[in-house]
Amino acid sequence: MGRPAGFIVMCCVCRKVRSNTGKWYKRRHLSHNSIVSHTYCPVCAEKIMAEIRPQAISNN
Ligand SMILES: [Zn+2]
């Protein structure tokens, strides 16, 4: 009992995994019973925002 083991936050772009301390690192193997939550790491989020911004401007 207690908190669920193996809850993983993974970047869906570069496949990096966030550690408990908030750092992002490459990880080769995930345990089978891990619950994976897909999101964007700060680096990929910034890239996506940079791609979205010009479109938003041109739509105006
Ligand atoms: Zn990423």
Blueprint (SSEs and pairs):
Layout (H helix, E strand, L loop, with lengths): L6 E5 L4 E3 L5 E3 L8 E5 L2 H18 L1
Parallel strand pairs: 1-4
Antiparallel strand pairs: 1-2, 2-3
This protein binds zinc ion.
The site of zinc ion has 8 residues, from helix 1.
Question: Would you mind describing this structure in some detail?
Answer:
A hairpin with a 4-residue loop joins strand 1 and strand 2 (16-18). This protein has 60 residues and is α+β, with helices and mostly antiparallel strands. It has one domain (7-59). The model has no long low-confidence stretch (mean pLDDT 84). It starts with 6 loop residues before the first strand and ends with a helix. The protein is built from one helix and four strands, in the order E-E-E-E-H. The protein is elongated and about 45 Å long. The longest helix is centred in the last third of the chain and has 18 residues, at 42-59. A four-stranded mixed β-sheet has the order 3-2-1-4, with no helix packed on it. Residues 11, 13-14, 16, 40-41, 43-44 line the site of zinc ion. Zinc ion binds at residues 11, 13-14, 16, 40-41, 43-44.
Multimeric status of the protein: single chain
> Structural class, please?
alpha+beta
Bound molecules: zinc ion
How many distinct helices? 1
The N- to C-terminal Cα distance equals: 53 Å
Helix content: 25-40%
